Structure formats: structure tokens, C-alpha cells
Amino acid sequence: MEVPTSDFQDLQLRRRQGADLAAGPAEEYRRPVLAPMTLVNPGHVSEISGALKDAGIDIHHLSLNVSREVLEKRTDRPSFTPDTPQQDKKVRRWCKEKSTRCMAAADTLPSDTVFLDGELAPQELADQVPARARAGATSGI
Questions:
Q1: CB of 91 within 8 A of CB of 39?
Q2: Which region, left, alpha or beta, applies to residue 15 given φ > 0 means left and ψ of -120 to 50 means alpha?
Q3: CA-wise closest residue to 41 among 109, 123, 92, 139
Q4: Which of 92, 98, 68 is closest to 80 using CA atoms?
Q5: Which residues of 41-72 are buried (b: 16+ CB within 10 A; e: fewer)?
Q6: Which of 65, 59, 66 minimizes the C-alpha distance to 115?
Q7: pTM for this one?
Q8: Could you give the CA distance from residue 97 to residue 35 in angstroms, rounded to a whole number?
């Protein structure tokens, strides 16, 4: 099914299932769930965070401050579909097309969002997440 806006986040079913999917492990294992996804529509942030809060799940919102140059470099690094180079190229293009909107979304994130230095190496960022989540935000997505 094609999304009229070309953004799968605009599918209400996907957002509902995403909230349910995040709630399941959080409830069962009593551990935080990390969702590496930028929600760029404030309404979507409210919808998903509201569903999780209604389920009694604490939310710690972390976001990256990252330059366009670093973001594009990281987008070029992985192979999304190594067996189909044309699809890989299409996915990279889609990611880059969305980058401006994603970067601009930082201004619309909840006020208690914890921003991490996206210029750091991925492993350095990963090492910071648990401590920053414990010490930081408790709302948002």
C-alpha cells in the first residue's frame, strides 16, 4: 500500500502498531525501549507518546543534534538492500529528501527532550544513551 504523502509515518495504523509494539516489551521486561526513529509531525509525537503514557510507560526522549554533512555521510555508509543496488539508491535518496524535515523537527520536540551530540561516533553515542535516559527526559518519543 502506498502512502499518499510518501511517508509511512502518516499511516495511522503504523503509528498505533508502533505504540503497541513499544508497549509490549516495556511492560513485559520492565526495561526501556529505544526507538531509533525521528517523528517529524508534532501530532504524531503526541499520539504515540499519549498511547504509551496511557499504558503507564515512562518515555525518555533523546534526539541528536547533527549537521547535515554528518547525517548525509551516515546515510551513505550502510547498505540498506545490499542485493539490490537500485533499491539501495532509492532508499538513500528518500532518506536524504527527509533530512531537512527531520532536522527542522528539533524545534517542535517536547521541551524536556535530551539532545545528544550527533557529531560523536555512533559507539560514543550508544554509550551515552543509558545514562542520559536515566538522568533526563520523561516525556516525548
A1: no
A2: alpha
A3: 109
A4: 92
A5: beebbebbbebbeeeebebbbbbbebeeeebe
A6: 65
A7: 0.69
A8: 21
- pLDDT, tens only, 99-117: 888 888 888 888 878 888 9
Residue identified by cell 502518516 is 10
Say how far apart CA 35 and CA 51 lie, in whole Å. 15
* CA 22 to mean position of chain CA atoms: 12
* DSSP annotation string for the chain: ---TTS-GGG-HHHHHHHHHHHHHHHHHH------------HHHHHHHHHHHHHTT-----EEEE--HHHHHHHHHSS-SSTT-HHHHHHHHHHHHHHHHHHHHGGGGS-TTPEEEETTS-HHHHHHHHHHHHHHS--S--
Query: Would you state the pLDDT for residue 136?
Result: 52
